Amino acid sequence: MTRNMKNSNNNREKIIHLMQTDDSIDAPSDAIKWSKNLFRARAAQPAQGILQRIIGVLVQELAPGKAAFGERSGSVGKVRQMLFEAGDNRVDLRVSKNHESFDVRGQILGRGWENAVVELAGQKSNVDKFGGFAVKDVKSGTYEVSIRGGQIEIVLKGIELE
Amino acid sequence: MPDTERKLGPFSAAPLGKDDAVLVGLCRKGDESAWSDLVDRYQRLVFAIPRRAGLSEAQAADVLQEVFLTLFEKLDEIERPEKIRSWLVTTAKFKTWGTVRRDKGLYSPETEEEMEFEMANLKDDSPLAEDALVLLEEQHMIRTALKKLSEKCQKILRMIYLTEPAASYAEVADAIGVGATSISPLRSRCLKKLERVLVAV
C-alpha cells in the first residue's frame, strides 16, 4: 500500500469516526430566527448617505404670561417656551417678540449636534458646542424648524410665530 | 477578537473558507439570504460550544445570540472573512467562558482585551480545551462538506453512517433505487468525494 493510499484510508476512517460521534444538535429555532432577523433590523435602518428624518413631538408648552404648574406667578416671563422630543434628543425652543418680528432661541439636548445646521424661515444658523442656536428677526407666520447634523435631521413642524 | 486558527488534523479549511468569504462579502452588500445561510451554517457549531462547556440550553441559546449579534456588528470590520469559522469559535468560547464565570459569581472581564488575557491563562483541561474545540470544528466541517455532495451521496452516507442502527445495503439500495451490489462501490466513491472536499490537494 502506498503512503498516499494509507493516508487516504486514514482520512476516510477519521471522517467516518467524526460523523458517527457527532452528537451536536441544532440550536433552538427561536434563537436561530432571532439571529437571522438581526439582518432585517439593520436593513430597516437608514443606509449611509440616506437622511434620517425625525419629527419632533411637542411635549410641553409654556405660553408667555402663563405660569407652569408649581411655578410662582412672579417668575412668569415673556418668552414662549416649547419642549420637543425627537428620538433620543430633546429640543428646547424659546420664542420672544422683538418689535414686529420674533427671535427664536433653542437648545438641543443630545449628543453630536455641535455645528449642526438650523434652518428657519430661510435663515440658517449653527448649533454651538453647548447645543444652543438662535435665529433672529423672523416675521410672523407658521414655520418648520430643521436641525440637520450629519445624516440625521430633526424637524419641528407647525411653529406659529404671532 | 482574535480569529485563532486551530490545526484541524488532515482537513483543510481553505475550500470551505472560500465559501465563507463569499457569504460574508454578500452580507456586506446587504444580501439577507447570505446572512441566513451563514447563520444556518454555523448555528450548530456555535451552539455546541456552550453546551459542551456545560451551560444549559437557554444559556447556550443566549451565547449563540450574543455571538451572532457581535458578528453582525463587526461584519464590516472582519479582515479575513475566509477565517470566519475560527472567529466564531473563538468568540463563542469567550462568551461561554464569561457566562461560566458569572454563574460562579466570579469576575467576568468586560472588555475583549481583558477576556483575551484571562483566556490565555486558562488551563487546557477546561471544558473548552483546544482539543474539544478542534473536534467540534472538524465535525462542523464534515457536516458542511456533506451538504456539498449530491443528494444521492448524502443519502447513502447518512443511511450507512448516521442512522442508528445503520441501514443495511439492501435498505440503502431500496431507498435510492439501485441494486444492492452497487452500494459498496457507491459508498466508497461518495466517501472519496467527501474526503476531496475536506482535504487539501
Question: What does this molecule look like?
Answer:
The complex is a heterodimer of chains A (162) and B (201). With 162 residues, chain A is an alpha+beta fold. Chain A has two domains: 3-38; 52-161, no CATH class. Chain A has helices spanning 3-21, 29-44, and strands spanning 52-55, 57-62, 80-86, 89-98, 101-109, 117-120, 123-126, 132-138, 141-149, 152-161. In chain A, β4 and β5 form a beta hairpin. The longest helix of chain A is centred in the N-terminal third of the chain and has 19 residues, at 3-21. Chain A is rod-shaped. Residues 67-76 of chain A have low confidence and may be disordered. Chain B folds into two domains: 7-139, Rna Polymerase Sigma Factor, Chain: A (Orthogonal Bundle); 148-201, Orthogonal Bundle (Arc Repressor Mutant, subunit A), CATH 1.10.10. The model of chain B has no long low-confidence stretch (mean pLDDT 83). At the A-B interface, α1 and α2 of A face α2, α3, α6, α7 and α9 of B.
| Overall domain count of chain A | 2
Rg of chain A to the nearest angstrom? 30 Å
Largest chain interface and its two residue counts? Answer: A-B, 29 and 41 residues
Structural class of chain A: alpha+beta
SSE string of chain A? HHEEEEEEEEEE
Helical content of chain A (DSSP H or I, runs of 4+): 10-25%
Q: Which spans of chain B have pLDDT < 50 for at least 5 consecutive residues?
A: none
- Cα(first) to Cα(last) distance of chain A is 99 Å
What composes the largest sheet of chain B? none
Give the N-to-C terminal Cα separation of chain B: 30 Å
Give a quick rundown of the structure.
Chain A is built from 2 helices and 10 strands. Chain A is α+β, with helices and mostly antiparallel strands. Chain A folds into 2 domains: 3-38; 52-161, no CATH class.
